[in-house]
Design goal:
Blueprint (H helix, E strand, L loop, with lengths): L1 E2 L3 E7 L11 E7 L13 H5 L14 E8 L5 E14 L1 H8 L15 E12 L4 H16 L6 H10 L1 E2 L6 E4 L7 E4 L12 H9 L1 H12 L3 E6 L2 H14 L8 E3 L16 E6 L12 E5 L4 E3 L11 H15 L20 H20 L6 E5 L5 E4 L1 H8 L5 H8 L1 H10 L3 E2 L3 H8 L1 H7 L3 H19 L33 H17 L10 E2 L9 H5 L7 H15 L3 H14 L3 H13 L6 E3 L1 H16 L5 H13 L2 E6 L2 E4 L13 H23 L5 H5 L1 H4 L7 H11 L5 H30 L30 H4 L1 H5 L10 H21 L4 H31 L19 E10 L19 E8 L2 E8 L9 E6 L3 E10 L6 E9 L3 E7 L5 H15 L8 H4 L4 H6 L7 H18 L4 E3 L7 H5 L1 H5 L4 E3 L10 H4 L2 H12 L1 H9 L16 E4 L15 E4 L4 H8 L9 E5 L6 E5 L4 H7 L11 H19 L13 H9 L3 H19 L11 H4 ...
Parallel strand pairs: 10-12, 10-13, 11-12, 19-20, 34-37, 35-36, 35-37
Antiparallel strand pairs: 1-7, 2-3, 2-6, 4-5, 5-6, 8-9, 13-14, 15-16, 17-18, 20-21, 22-23, 22-28, 23-24, 24-25, 26-27, 27-28, 29-30, 31-32, 33-34, 38-39, 38-44, 39-40, 40-41, 42-43, 43-44
């Protein structure tokens, strides 16, 4: 029983203590005056009566009521019900004013009311929470006062304070306060369940499901929660509701439902809280950073950024939300039903409240089920001591990773839950019942919401019943104040009178006396055994952790263990890798421990060395892969095993397994040892009582037959039984039991002290692991897991010195272990109540235990060192090149597999990696050579290497090898030859050695100067390598450079020359144009003097030598071949040649990065060139580099213009000139230069100025006239694709549109209204407004497609017919550079702005490409497949862009316009485009000599910055590796794939160049320009120095030499057509990934250092020879070819190579002098031709080679359909279709091949085919389709295009009724005569067709007719 009210208080406004604005309240009266002993009076009540502060108000307010909650020091909650009303009083302000007539404070003019109202509160303080009863009682007291009822107030209050009611038990009490009132109070049946009224339902209505769930999770995971509302009662209800849904957990932090404004600083407390605050203080809550604010009035929950709320684990969250929405919004489910049931109202609020609580109860049932199985009971008597094993609970529930549950289990609420609900003998409630009996039901139903709902309704019913045990009785009768008319009139209201305390006290004393005499009420405590519910074990299966391990894996583990114990070691060795893999799964680990347990007899199992080794290895693996939580479970089962398995080391010396598995963090984890200790204690105590009661069988009988024997009694059940019996035992029995338990705990503590010393003391006691807690991977903690028998020889010595403890006595280790064990013992013994004497005994015992153990360990350690070391594979030496030297000898490392799966055996094939071997660092390469770890592949040799110069990224990694447990440091080295070395240093490699290795590697990768690279240092010894810096190596270089400068000065004449250090521009400056102006080392300061420029005057004899060298250079040979000018002795030339070779740059003064000799127009003097050059970046002015022999169009290259030059260049004639005249003169000279180039073309006829299109074509192209007309529209389309304009082309360069078969642009309807042409952002300026065209101009495309376009201003113009012809010169420029220029209609050149790929783009794209092709680790994300990564690298897009521009330029040159490529600095993209154009246009460049010449001319002479882009020296290290040249080679590879018969060289040739251009083995690709090469003396030495035939300095010489020996570079399919121009497809779908990026040969490393590979093969053959004498077994000639191991081209050569090899070996056998392969090949070729002529069949190439399945061989006409068109629109449509559809390169087999299976000859299958326009169905347009008439199948099929395989539709001829001529209908193609139309009538519909002309139509009609008649 409890008092209904403890105190009654009257609180009023304190008139005496009025501060400034804030009033205060004070207690006027309180009853009883004296505190109750069991319940002191709470302090500070006056603050809580008016939480917003005490204030006087001008108008009376209505009475208010709310309940505050105060928590006292014992965390008991007190409910303070406050009833507040307002009483009038004379305004104290006015009184004060009268007293002191004038007061400065008063604000004049504020009228003060005469009367104000002060609040007064009646407060009830109670420990019970009966809100409604309090409201009624206080209301009654107020009513008695206001309505002046006859009852004295003292009586009412006395009755109230003496009312006593039961706390729980479901009774019903009627109370009266003696004022004619009556109330019924119902008490809940079980007071452990919270009472919530309908507050939970209200909370969900106010905030919504998701918000409340957030608050719920936040409260459970101990966040701070603040409620805001303007209603106090709502705040209290919301807080109460939140606590109610947390049941069975109890909130144990600060809980203040209504916080007074004065105490707001409480909100900044660091502990969690649930607090309510009136919205009045909202602004003060704004700056709280870590508080979750729930606004009840606004329905929002605000979570600050820094707060992360862990939500419920996944399926549960979803299920809870579903259940809640079914309770709160049952209509949601049937909202979509066609016939919704008549009414589905949610339950009444009170019921709904219980249903919501039932959902949360159900949720906790899900979360906590099985918790009782993880309780450890350590003591039963005198008090149960219980611990919860969190790790086991999470591990078995498979929720170890779950954030939410972890936090809940760690929280205070859960600790309270365990201490309250842990004891096994206590009263039970609804939650216990749920956990015990309904878990199974919950699990079965959780997937069907309706069953869940039924369960929830049942639970809700129980909750409701608990709160309302009786049907509601309407016996309430409480007076309310009469609402009389004058009620609110202040005159009528008396002040609440002071009460007579004596009277009230008498009532209280009287009641107290009565209570004393009454007999005590004994409430029977219904204690009972708490059932545990179903065990956790079987739950794991549902979470799928077991499923991950198939039975097969468990079988492997079992077999392996059986083999080990049966001593079948070889079998075990084979299974080992599989077992180690399997042990990653939990089931396999458990299986291992079970299997091992079976082999332990009497706690001991003695093994031999090898068995011991394997068992330890498996234990280590099991422990190593454990997740943090699961580890406790596995380590716990292994703990007894590690002290059981042992091996004999010598006389009386035994080594146990624990000395080899100490390397795991779990052993140093205090919680693990505690949990283990407690579970063992529990088992022993259980055993203790089972034995004790063994004699008297009483318990077994009592627990009934169901128990079926004592074994089934769990520890908790036993404990509960014992607790029940406890009161019945005598004192002696009780103390005996306590003593027994205590000694059990004590003996366990000793046992554990031993165990812990076993696992914490390392075998070599000089290494302490506890001091070095961090580190498994540290040097000091040398892995004991390896101590088995390898540590002996190889490691133990080397580490003693490094352990850092060598001076320390072993006592150090002992001390730290003793300390650790002492801490443990203190903790567990205190918790489990061990006596102090025992504890002291333990503390004295522990050091002895440890010391004793150290002594035994020393002996074991000594003996274990004597074991023979495990043999490691011997290190293999790599083969080195001549001149290559080892910088560091081999260091033992493990090569670990990376993301490529071929070598790991994951895709089938042998597991070549991981491999063990050594890494070698030479002056040229990094080489790994070793053998696979997998014993089944052990005899193969694995080699991986790359040139040190190609290293792009080095990163330290730490690796744990699966075999050995400890982590090793390693390196991941990435190379731009697409290789990755992921190595882990062996434990014998000291870490400083690894550091030295890294330093050397860096030094070699980034030498100080290019002379430090391998190409220069080759063959010199390492010492001189370091000395280079000090000594001047090559005097001749210096003199040459001096000469150069002198002659330059002389050349320049009067100007002064500034010398400054040349530093390559940094990235930032590269883009800013100014810095590049002054980048040249010799900058010429004034205009050049023309007189001084004749050659003979300047060239002295010493320099003439250089000149003749320059003339010899490749460029000149090429210029002469192209007829671009010659150099005769006198250096004069005939004036009629349009071009001349200028020597203006012979001293590299005009442009540092250009060659010495350049081709310029005949009419331009050198002085002009010098001036022009300044307008271009890097002074790279336009020069001619190739001329089309047929059209005589020329190709020029230059850099982009300087920003200021652009505008000057394209300045419109009428614009006022901005700058001084000099700028104009330069731009005029530029125009003159352009004009000179245009004039050089034969098509430019002088007399007429310019010709019309007709003349233009007829003059020099009459031969190709028809085909050319056909092609003209093409270029328009190409041009628009390339320009990628904003409005016309749907993002041609964006990734999406590239590969699609988009019609890129419709040329039939050019959109040139001013509006359409204005880009959205107005980037090019308004076209219409200015009346001139912008530089980017759709009409460029239109003119190219010979389309008319109206003038921008709308009127026709006389220039219109001129517009129809092509420009003579196209300038391909960078879009960004060409803003704001003009287009003159009479100007003869035109600018094509394109977007250039920036060098940075190339660099980033390459990085991603490497990561895609050679990933560093296998990716787990399914989305990141190889193709996805490849796409994201955008490498293919870049290739596409370069190829697209190149094809455009080829087209333009082929149609007779000249092209100038003027992009970026003229040395990256420009070089790519220009080289590709020449390669595509001129067959010469597709031969060996031609390609070499092309690279020498365009890449080397024209100054592509190889050293800078390849980051070859220290200076360029920061700029990073940018493979511009590789991109070019990839483009060539793509073209090669599409035209395999056009190239003399093979794909291998391209790979060879790609490898060696970064390898630095040859000097060819070093340095940035000819100038630098001359300065270093590299350029001309190759001719003279041939002393050492071994060392080739030029890659070309090497290739020539190799090509003579072997056909490796030769393409057997080479059979070129004359003057063939190639036009490759450039769509991404047509591009292939180059196999250079993905292939590797592990048997011999990269095959590009030919002599290494040859020597390696010879050595391997030599090794195999000794087997020969054994002739008994015939040796198989067969050989397994492994994809990433063998070089397939060598093992399985193609037929021709094989035949040539056989010829060679036959010649050798016959002793004939070997013939060169080339001669043999040429002979065969010649014979073939002769035979072909004789037999009159197609020539050699088609017979011999076309048969070799060259289905993808494309000839030039492959792209265009050779139709002789009549209507231009047909042609256009068809051309467009073929050019822009992405036809795969491999050429789709034309549809004919698909049908060849039906009949032998094609002609019958396709009786007739061609293009017809077909009218679509109703309202659809006419479309051209490719129709095929098929007699065999008797149908007419149509396709979108000729290449298409997918048939678009079929017209069955059987259904055709007639074929008749038709008439054109709406939307038919224009310009087609009427007779070209015909109709085909079938039974279903009429098809309208249109052929290209009438004869064609007739043909079609006849063919169809004949088919019909045939049928």
């Amino acid at each position: 029983m409890a008092r209904l009210a403890d105190y009654f208080v009257v609180v009023g406004y304190d008139l005496d203590k009025r501060g400034g604005s804030e009033g205060q309240g004070h207690i006027l009266q309180r009853f009883p005056e004296k505190d109750w002993e069991d319940n002191p009076f709470p302090q500070g009540i006056e603050l809580f009566c008016q939480p917003n502060g005490w204030q006087l108000v001008p108008e009376r307010e209505r009475p208010s009521f709310f309940v505050s909650v105060l928590t006292d020091i014992n965390s008991e909650r007190h409910y303070c019900a406050c009833f507040t009303f307002w009483e009038g009083l004379d305004n104290p302000q006015l009184q004060k004013a009268e007293a002191s007539e004038v007061d400065e404070d008063e604000v004049p003019g504020l009228v003060q009311p005469a009367q104000v109202f002060a609040p007064k509160s009646l407060v009830l303080v109670s420990r019970l929470d009966h809100t409604e009863v309090f409201r009624n009682c206080l209301g009654l007291i107020y009513t008695v006062h206001v309505d002046s009822l006859s009852v004295p107030l003292e009586t009412v209050i006395g009755n109230l304070l003496t009312c006593v009611i039961p706390v729980a038990g479901g009774s019903q009490r009627t109370i009266t306060l003696g004022a004619g009132d009556r109330q019924v109070i119902q008490t809940p049946i079980n007071d452990s369940l919270p009472v919530s009224g309908s507050s939970v339902a209200h909370l969900f209505r106010q905030l919504g499901i998701v918000n409340v769930l957030y608050l719920f999770c936040a409260a459970l995971t101990e966040h701070k929660i603040l409620f805001l509302s303007s209603s106090y009662q709502r705040l209290t209800d919301a807080c109460r509701a939140l606590l109610a849904i947390m049941f069975p957990l109890k909130y144990s932090f600060t809980y203040v439902p209504i916080l007074p404004g004065k105490l707001l600083e409480v909100l900044s407390t660091p502990t969690p809280f649930i607090i309510g605050v009136n919205s009045f203080f909202r602004s003060e809550t704004q700056e709280l950073l870590d508080v979750i604010i729930a606004d009840l009035d606004g329905g929002t929950v605000t979570i600050p950024e820094c707060v992360h709320i862990s939500l419920l684990p996944d399926p549960l969250l979803q299920q809870t939300q579903t259940a809640l929405s079914m309770v709160l919004d049952p209509e949601l489910e049937i909202a979509d039903h066609a016939f919704p049931p008549s009414s589905t109202q949610p339950s009444t609020l009170k019921i709904q409240d219980k249903e919501i609580r039932a959902v949360f109860l159900w949720l906790f049932g899900q979360l906590f089920h099985g918790y009782r199985w993880c309780l450890h009971i350590i003591r039963i008597h005198p008090e149960p001591v219980i611990r919860f094993h969190k790790a086991a609970f999470l591990g078995q529930r498979a929720l170890t990773e779950d954030d939410f549950l972890m936090k809940v289990l760690d929280g205070m609420a859960f600790a309270g839950f365990i201490s309250e609900r842990g004891p096994p003998y206590r009263p039970t409630d609804l939650f216990d019942d749920l956990i015990a009996n309904q878990v199974e039901r919950i699990r079965q139903e959780e997937c069907s919401p309706h069953k869940v709902m039924n369960h929830i309704k049942e639970l809700a019913e129980q909750l409701f019943k608990n709160e309302n045990p009786y049907p509601v009785v309407a016996m309430h009768k409480v007076q309310r104040p009469a609402e009389s008319p004058g009620h609110n009139d202040p005159k009528n209201l008396a002040i609440f009178p002071p009460l007579d305390d004596v009277t009230v006290q008498l009532f209280i004393d009287h009641a107290a006396a009565k209570l004393k005499t009454a007999p005590p009420m004994v409430k029977a405590e219904l204690n009972g055994m708490v059932p545990s519910g179903p065990p956790l074990g079987d739950i794991v299966d549902r979470h799928g952790h077991v499923l991950a391990n198939s039975a097969r894996r468990l079988e492997v583990v079992r077999n392996c263990i059986t083999y080990i114990f049966d001593n079948k070691m070889l079998e075990a060795k084979k299974l080992m890798p599989a077992v180690l893999r399997a042990l990653k799964g939990r089931a396999a680990r458990v299986c291992l421990t079970q299997e091992l347990n079976q082999h332990v007899l009497q706690n001991r199992a003695v093994l031999d060395d090898q068995q011991f080794d394997y068992i330890v290895r498996m234990m280590n693996c099991t422990l190593q892969d454990c997740s943090h939580m699961d580890e406790h479970g596995i380590a716990a089962i292994l703990l007894p095993l590690v002290t059981a398995f042992c091996r004999k080391l010598g006389a009386g010396i035994t080594q146990f397994a624990y000395s080899c598995v100490q390397e795991h963090m779990v052993w140093t984890n205090m919680q693990f040892w505690e949990a283990m200790f407690y579970s063992d204690v529990q088992n022993h105590i259980r055993a203790l009582y089972l034995e004790a009661d063994g004699g008297e069988q009483s318990i077994a009988q009592e627990s009934g037959p169901a128990a079926g024997g004592q074994e089934l009694l769990g520890a908790l059940e036993l404990a509960s039984e014992q607790s029940r019996l406890w009161p019945t035992l005598s004192k002696e029995q009780q103390s005996e039991r306590v003593q027994k338990e205590e000694s059990t705990v004590f003996s366990q503590a000793i046992h554990y002290a031993n165990r812990m010393s076993y696992l914490l003391l390392p075998l070599d006691t000089s290494k302490n692991r506890l001091l070095n807690r961090s580190g498994i991977g540290d040097v000091e903690s040398v892995s004991n897991s390896y101590v088995t028998n390898s540590i002996a020889g190889s490691m133990a010595e080397s580490y003693d010195t490094e352990s850092g403890f060598e001076d320390a006595e072993s006592s150090d280790v002992a001390n730290s272990v003793v300390r650790f064990i002492n801490r443990f013992v203190d903790k567990v013994c205190n918790e489990s109540g061990v006596t102090n004497e025992h504890l002291k005994a333990l503390h004295t015992m522990i050091p002895d235990i440890v010391q004793m153990h150290i002594e035994t360990l020393d002996a074991v350690h000594r003996e274990s060192k004597r074991l023979p070391p495990i043999q490691k594979p011997k290190l293999l030496r790599p083969i080195l090149l001549a001149g290559e030297e080892l910088v560091m000898d081999g260091m033992r490392v493990h090569l670990i597999s990376d993301g490529r799966e071929e070598a790991t055996g994951a895709l089938g094939g042998p597991a070549l990696l991981p491999a063990e071997g050594a890494i070698f660092l030479t002056t040229y390469r990094l080489i790994f050579k070793g053998t696979p770890n997998d014993p089944l592949v052990g005899e193969q040799v694995v080699t991986r290497s790359f040139p040190i110069a190609s290293l792009t990224k080095e990163k330290r990694i730490s690796v744990s090898l699966s075999m050995d447990q400890f982590i090793q440091e390693g390196l991941q080295l990435r190379s731009c030859t697409f290789q990755l070395l992921k190595i882990a240093f062996d434990e014998e490699v000291a870490s400083d050695l690894a550091e030295v290795f890294r330093k050397h590697m860096h030094k070699l990768r980034y030498p100080q100067h290019v002379q430090g690279t391998f190409a220069f240092t080759m063959g010199q010894s390492g010492k001189t390598l370091v000395e280079h810096k000090t000594k001047d190596k090559n005097q001749s270089i210096k003199t040459l450079s001096k000469n150069l400068v002198k002659s330059a000065k002389r050349t320049i004449g009067r100007q002064y020359v500034t010398r400054k250090k040349y530093s390559p521009p940094t990235w930032e400056n590269r883009s800013s144009l100014q810095s590049e102006l002054d980048e040249d080392e010799i900058s010429v300061s004034e205009e050049l003097d023309q007189g001084s420029l004749t050659l003979s005057s300047t060239i002295r004899s010493s320099d003439r030598q250089t000149m003749s060298n320059v003339v010899e250079r490749a460029c000149c040979r090429d210029y002469q071949r192209l007829g671009l000018g010659t150099l005769s002795n006198s250096l004069t030339r005939s004036k009629n040649e349009p071009f001349r070779i200028s020597t203006v740059n012979r001293m590299y003064t005009v442009c540092r990065s250009y060659p010495g000799l350049l081709i310029v127009p005949q009419s331009i003097p050198d002085s002009t060139i010098q001036r022009i050059s300044r307008c271009y970046r890097q002074n790279r002015f336009p020069v001619v580099c190739w001329r089309n022999s047929r059209t005589k169009a020329v190709l020029l290259r230059s850099a982009g213009l300087h920003a200021k030059g652009v505008v000057g260049f394209f300045k419109s004639p009428n614009a006022p000139s901005a700058g001084p005249s000099q700028a104009d003169s330069t731009s005029l000279e530029q125009e003159k230069y352009m004009q000179a180039i245009i004039s050089s073309m034969p098509s430019y006829c002088e007399p007429s100025g310019r010709n019309t299109l007709g003349g233009f074509t007829s003059t020099h192209m009459s031969t190709s006239d028809s085909s050319d007309k056909l092609r003209q529209p093409k270029i328009g389309a190409l041009m628009k694709q390339v320009m990628g304009g904003k409005e016309d082309v749907p993002g041609t360069f964006s990734r999406g549109a590239l590969g699609q078969r988009a019609r890129v642009i419709s040329l039939s309807q050019p959109r040139v209204s001013g509006k359409a042409r204005n880009p959205p952002g107005g980037k090019w300026g308004s076209i219409r407004g200015s009346g001139r065209l912008s530089a980017y101009n759709p009409e460029v495309g239109n003119r190219l497609s010979s389309k008319e376009s109206p003038q921008p201003n709308g009127g026709p113009s006389e220039a219109l017919f001129l517009r129809q012809q092509r420009a003579y010169l196209y300038i391909i420029g960078d879009k960004t550079q060409l803003k704001g220029g003009k287009q003159d209609s009479f100007q003869q050149w035109e600018v094509v702005p394109i977007e250039v790929c920036d060098v940075r783009q190339v660099k980033n794209s390459f990085k991603k490409l490497i990561k895609a092709c050679v990933p560093s680790s296998a990716t787990s994300e399914p989305s990141m497949t190889f193709h996805r990564c490849l796409e994201e690298s955008e490498w293919m897009c870049l290739l596409h862009r370069v190829l697209q521009v190149s094809v455009l330029v080829v087209e333009l040159l082929d149609t007779g316009s000249s092209v100038m490529v003027s992009l970026e600095d003229g040395w990256d993209v420009t070089t790519q485009v220009v080289s590709l154009v020449q390669l595509l246009s001129d067959p010469y460049y597709r031969t060996f000599d031609g390609f070499r010449l092309l690279v020498e001319k365009e890449w080397l002479s024209f100054g592509h910055r190889f050293s800078h882009r390849g980051a070859q020296t220290l200076a360029s290290q920061s700029s990073g590796f940018t493979p511009v040249f590789l991109q070019f080679l990839d483009c060539v590879h793509q073209i090669h794939l599409q035209f395999p018969m056009e190239f003399e060289f093979s794909q291998y040739y391209l790979k060879f160049l790609a490898y060696h251009y970064v390898s630095n083995r040859f000097r060819t690709f070093l340095l940035d320009s000819d100038y630098e090469r001359i300065e270093l003396g590299v350029l001309y030495e190759e001719k003279g120095e041939r002393k050492n035939p071994q060392v080739c300095k030029s890659v070309w010489d090497y290739i020539d030499r190799l090509n003579k020996k072997t056909p490796i570079f030769f393409n057997y399919m080479f059979s070129p057509e004359d003057e063939e121009v190639l036009r490759p497809y450039s769509f991404i779908s047509n591009l292939k990934v180059w196999d250079f990026y993905t292939e590797e040969t592990l048997s011999e490393g990269p095959s590009y250092d030919w002599e290494l590979v040859q020597r390696g093969r010879q050595e391997r053959l030599a090794e195999e020879v000794p087997d020969k004498p054994d002739t008994t077994t015939p040796k198989s000639q067969r050989h397994i070819v492994w994809p990433c191991y063998d070089s397939r081209s060598r093992v399985v050569p193609d037929a021709i190579t094989k035949l040539l090899q056989d010829l060679q070996s036959l010649e050798a056998e016959l002793g004939l002098p070997p013939e060169k392969w080339k001669d043999t090949w040429d002979k065969i070729k010649a014979n073939q031709r002769v035979e072909a002529k004789l037999e009159n069949r197609p020539s050699f190439n088609s017979s011999l080679l076309m048969s070799s399945n060259l289905s993808h061989q494309r000839r030039s006409q492959g792209v265009y359909l050779p139709e002789s068109g009549v209507g231009s629109s047909i042609n256009l449509a068809m051309d467009r279709e073929t050019s822009t559809t992405s036809t795969p390169v491999a050429g789709r087999p034309s549809t004919s091949t698909l049908y060849s299976q039906f009949q032998s000859t094609e002609s019958e299958n396709r009786s007739f085919e061609g293009i017809l326009f077909k009218k679509g169905a109703l309202l659809k347009p006419w479309k051209p389709r490719w129709f095929v008439l098929d007699k065999t199948k008797h149908q007419l099929r149509y396709y979108e295009t000729r290449q298409d395989k997918e048939c678009k539709g079929v017209i069955e001829l059987a259904e055709v009724e007639s074929v008749i001529p038709g008439t054109p209908t709406m939307g038919a193609p224009k310009n087609i005569e009427e007779k070209a139309f015909f109709d085909l009538k079938t039974t279903k519909r009429v098809y309208n067709f249109c052929a290209q002309d009438s004869p064609n139509a007739q043909l079609w009609m006849d063919s169809i007719q004949s088919c019909l008649s045939d049928a």
